[in-house]
Design a protein that fits this description.
heterodimer, A: about 250 residues, alpha/beta, six-stranded mixed sheet, 10 helices, 12 strands, B: alpha/beta, ten-stranded mixed sheet, nine-stranded mixed sheet, globular, binds adenosine-5'-diphosphate, binds magnesium ion
Chain lengths: ~250, ~425
């Protein structure tokens, strides 16, 4: 289970406070959606979960499987099963997609005490997972994400997720920039990974994605806190009424 | 005071060594006379120093405190791991301490002749002389004169017109002390070939190499010229490439230079006829007190030529990287297309990168540009890698290698590209 307790986060080199006492529990096997207006701190939450520098946790804690992850460097969190599908996946000029995927896969296997994959075994796996996401091997011979369209970048994130087999999947606006076909491919990819051993935190600005990845719970993040939690119908309400009711308080 | 500049200790030693060596070097009395004349040119000018603009960052008078001694040839020093190019099927010629000692067993490649400079200069004294274009600076002239005085051997490669040998020709230069080598490469009309040079020294050897390659591309020729140079701490590698490119020819050099010692790789290229191109990429890696200098002068003397340069430098510790790139576009050289990019990756706050791009454009209908960047590893990219489970040390290595890889990728021969990348990777990972 993911347990976020009273999390306060500020920017490391500014006084700005972004998260102001956020609490949340996501049991394994469940998909929780976080919705909120732009700038409400959704990505900040995702980055703090993954361990990015530049943020300072001033209060509270994050537990994954009963263990605090706050002191762990990002690669160790990844070894514990944490995965973030980035809102803006990064381009790495000069590193071929396949090299990147194999380095990551084997680094994680090593840390998890599993044997490294041979090249043929790895290629077979990539091909199999890639086919489902409509990602051609040729595309992965190119440098990571360089020259990819927005949709290709998002699919490549989901491919990484499928290969690295995380147990806590955080998806940050994976739907943004996707057309309806790409949205379906990505959602199918995510749904295929749903299992009783995995927890998902799906961050989105729009309700649309949640028609495809149907959440068990929906939380509204505004003003640095979870303002409201409910079932999947909450997303539909938000779609109609907008976030005005929640952000109004900020004024 | 009106006194000639005092000679440095190494200049004095170089003069003494040269006077002693010249009578023992290959060539008849005409060659000997030419060598003595060249030595006089060197003695008058001395080692290049900082008051010569092109040598401002690489002051050899200051950097070469001692002249290395001339080591007698020891063929037992050959360690093939130093120059291995597995997978490339290269025809390899090994020069140890300035003498050709091994030729490939199966050395007949259709359309290719490789002779030793020492044999050729004995037959043809004119081979020693190099016609230097005006664009060669005074410092380089002095270094080249010293090379003419002392060149003991090298390769004379002729690619026949229309030949397209698949196998690369690989010249290996291993030296433990002072050495001067001279290569002459003539790529015949419409030929396409690959020449690889490897310049290395046994670890710890106080090698000082002065290498000159005189390169001519006839009409329509394509020459892939790949050079790998290691300059360990305490060793120095000076190289001058003089390249003349005729109509429609394509010169494609790649250089990988690494070490904690001193290196200067200087390429002077002249577009003598139209519709020719230069596609140059280079990687320089230095750590410790390493000093890596890549200097380029491209003379667009005629219209319709294209030059592309991509330089990557990785500097750690107190290392210093220098990139100087001068592109001259003559008044009549319309439709010149020249682009240059020099990028440095700084791994330590004490490293220094000096970049001096210069465009001297006298024509008006041209597209020319240059860019320089100097940056540390991108923390966002590091985070991205780490978030995928890649440990920081490995993530750093991956990103550094990718930076370098963009230049190495330009090598078209796949096996050669892999071999050069392996050398770069091995060097980068040998830091502990
Ligand atoms: N590294 C950062 N530097 C400066 N401001 C930041 C940084 N990260 C987040 N912020 C600010 O914090 C607020 C929340 O941002 P973010 O978490 O990206 O929101 P969301 O993802 O919900 O749109 C925004 O006002 C944003 O500008
Ligand atoms: Mg966001």
């Amino acid at each position: 289970m993911l347990e976020i307790k009273n999390l306060h986060v500020k920017l490391a080199d500014e006084d700005r406070v972004i998260l102001k006492g956020l609490s949340l529990k996501v049991p394994k096997g469940e998909v929780h959606a976080i919705m909120g207006p732009n700038g409400s701190g959704k990505s900040t939450l995702a980055y703090v979960l993954a361990g990015r520098d530049g943020y300072e946790v001033t209060e509270g804690d994050i537990h994954w499987n009963g263990e605090s992850i706050l002191e762990m460097p990002p690669d160790e969190r990844a070894a514990k099963g944490v995965f973030l599908a980035f809102q803006y996946p990064m381009e790495i000029p000069g590193v071929a997609g396949l090299t990147f995927l194999r380095t990551a896969t084997n680094a994680l296997r090593k840390k998890r005490g599993e044997p490294e994959l041979t090249t043929p075994a790895f290629m077979k796996l990539v091909k199999e997972k890639g086919d489902k996401l409509n990602i051609d091997i040729e595309m992965l011979k190119r440098p990571v994400n360089v020259g990819f369209s927005g949709g290709e970048k998002k699919r490549s994130e989901i491919l990484q997720m499928a290969l690295l087999e995380p147990t806590l999947c955080v998806l940050d606006e994976t739907d943004s920039g996707l057309d309806i076909d790409a949205l379906r491919i990505v959602s199918d990819g995510v749904n295929a990974l749903r299992s009783k051993d995995r927890a998902f935190l799906v961050i989105t600005h729009y309700q649309r994605l949640l028609n495809h990845i149907v959440p068990d719970k929906v939380h509204v993040l505004a003003d640095g806190k979870i303002q409201k939690s409910g079932g999947k119908e909450l997303a539909l309400e938000l779609e109609k009424a907008g976030y005005a009711g929640f952000t109004g308080k900020a004024a | 005071m009106n006194v000639a500049v005092m000679k440095t200790k190494s200049e004095q030693t170089l003069s003494l060594q040269a006077a002693e060596r010249i009578p023992t070097l290959p060539g008849d009395k005409d060659v000997r006379r030419a060598r003595e004349a060249a030595l006089a040119v060197f003695e008058a000018a001395g080692l290049p120093h900082r008051r010569i603009e092109e040598w401002k960052y690489t002051d050899l008078r200051a950097l070469l405190k001692d002249a290395a001694s001339v080591t007698p040839q020891r063929s037992s020093d050959v360690d093939s791991k130093l120059f291995d190019l597995t997978g490339t099927k290269a025809a390899t010629y090994v020069f140890v301490d300035g003498r050709l000692i091994t030729k490939p067993k199966d050395h007949t490649i259709a359309g290719v002749t490789v002779a030793s400079f020492s044999d050729e200069v004995s037959k043809n004294p004119a081979l020693l002389a190099i016609e230097l274009p005006e664009t060669v600076d005074a410092g380089a002239r002095s270094v080249i004169a010293l090379n003419s005085a002392l060149a003991s051997d090298g390769a004379v490669i002729t690619i026949a017109a229309g030949a397209a040998p698949e196998r690369p020709i690989h010249l290996v230069f291993i030296a433990s002390g002072a050495v001067a080598v001279r290569n002459v490469i003539v790529a015949g009309a419409d030929s396409e070939s690959t020449v690889v040079e490897t310049h290395v020294s046994p670890t710890g050897a106080a090698r000082q190499e002065n290498a000159v390659s005189d390169v001519t591309l006839a009409r329509g020729a394509t020459l892939h010229h790949v050079v790998r140079t290691e300059a360990h701490e305490g060793s120095a590698a000076l190289a001058q490439y003089l390249v003349r490119v005729c109509a429609g020819a394509h010169y494609k050099p790649f250089q990988l230079t690494s070490g904690g010692g001193l290196s200067r790789q200087q390429l002077t290229l002249t577009f003598a006829e139209q519709h020719a191109s230069l596609d140059f990429s280079a990687v320089a890696l230095a750590r410790g007190a390493g000093h890596v200098d890549t200097t380029l002068v491209v003379d667009h003397a005629v219209p319709h030529c294209t030059s592309r340069e991509l330089f990557k430098t990785v500097l750690d510790d107190r290392a210093r990287g220098i990139f100087q790139g001068k592109v001259i576009v003559a008044p009549n050289a319309q439709k010149t297309d020249g682009k240059q990019m020099a990028q440095a990756l700084m791994l330590s706050p004490d490293a220094e990168f000096d970049s001096k791009p210069e465009l001297e454009i006298y024509a008006d209908d041209v597209v020319c540009g240059h860019g320089t960047t100097s940056a540390e590893l991108d923390p966002d990219l590091l985070f991205y890698c780490e978030s995928r489970g890649i440990p920081e040390v490995e993530a750093r290595a991956l990103l550094i290698e990718s930076f370098v890889g963009e230049a190495v990728e330009k090598i078209e021969n796949e096996a050669l590209r892999d071999a050069l990348m392996s050398y770069a990777t091995a060097w980068l990972r040998s830091a502990a």
